[in-house]
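Researcher: I'm preparing a figure for a lab meeting and need a structural model of a single chain. I don't have an experimental structure, so a prediction will have to do for now. The sequence is pasted below. Please return the structure as tokens so I can convert it later.
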Amino acid sequence: MSGTNLARILEARAAERGEAVGLYGEDGRSWTFDQIDLVAGGVARALAAEGVGPGDRVAFYLANGPEIVFFLFGAWKLGAVPVTISSLYNAAELAESVAKTDPKLLLVDAGRTDAVADLDDATLAIRSISTQVPAGGVRPLSWGGEARVNAVDVEADWESCILFTGGTTGRPKAVSVTHGGTLGSLERLARVSTGSTGQGTAAPDAKANLIALPLFHSGGQHALLFGYFVGRGAVVWERFGIDRLAGLMERFAFDNFFFLPTMVYDIVHADRDLPFEGVKHVLVAGQAISWTVRRQFEERYRVPILVSYGSTESGHIAGWNGRDMKAGLWRPGSAGRIYPGVELEIRDDDGAALPTGAEGEVVVRSELTKGYVDDAEASAELVRDGWVHTGDMGHVDEDGVLWLSGRKRDMIKCGGFQVWPEEIEDVLREHPLVHDIRVFGRPDDRLGEIPVALVVRDAEAPATDDELTADLVAFARDRLAHFKTPRRVEFVPELERSAAGKVSRASVPDLEEHS
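Model: Understood. Here is the structure written out token by token.
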């Protein structure tokens, strides 16, 4: 099936509305859809010159910005597979990500070459995306030219990208998504949002979308692809910030947004008012949003918040749109109405489908993911006979509305990022004054959840609780991305254990609240 290459989305926009601006940087630069396609073609030529071809993985360790758009589409034109590694990761996390995914080439920013100095992989080529001078001994990739390169034909089930996600258990995993599955997810969302599955349906003068999430995040990539799928331009910035957001709102007069709950929290608590005039709605996904924050935002700006439920592995599953709100269909507290075309079942622990209203695990038929590239056992648990097991618990009512009640396992979502307790525990156990540790999530209005560490001190630890807390947080920050660092440390004499002697994760301690 030749039409499934994601690069064809860009090529179609270049053909039908090539002179329309399709990409803006926050620094004033802009590119038309035709220029984006030409620069992406130049990237494809540069990657091919490095020996990259169909099926080869190319890792990106890049600060968020417009350039990533060129590299994504340049790789896709060749049938290559972008491996989008968080720019928030430190050198150790970068090395682990590279080891899991085995890319042929690693692209880094000129200013981040120190992070690749200790990578021990003789088969991995490393190139800086600087086009001027080599940085840190890393040779630059010669990608600045333009070329008209047509996307190669790919099958629907070909790997299109590798994104890092928590999966269903253990440490962060590398999830493989497909060209055909991604396109199918975009078509479902277009049908819900615009009433049409056809590409290029946005008006030629439609406003650009702000891609608020980073392009190493599945939400950022899907926002970019969806905008291009319907024909809207994209504004890509380095990172979220209130003053940056205000400036871009004044410049572009956006008519909709896709935010993480963390961003909405910061907007609500900002001292300045933002120019939300003309914004029809704000879509929130990535994690549950606090009702308090939602009410504060809607009362302050008179703009409705819509929710969307899905995941990197399953795609878009359920949500609400503007038409639902106007028709009075919206149900407060729900995940949303199941989107047309989504096959969803609620199943018990034995895998049997449950009737309407019964609670069980949310399971979705999806061609989006090929599973985890680094964990065959977890992949077999995730995808069974074409059905993705989300790990979320809930039920579907008689109107086809999905209600979530919790997660089957104990993953923490902090600021839209997935955090696994085991990873934090592994790091903090290396601290000489930690005897035992358990990490779990606690609700937080701004971040959704925060990691909290229960620590059993070593009997000989001389430090006070406050001193040890500060030391543990600093220890974690040196070894983990900032969003994984525990925001709170509590000391206990011992951890609750199961009958088998394992640390129990079934209960959440009722910690005394204090500032």
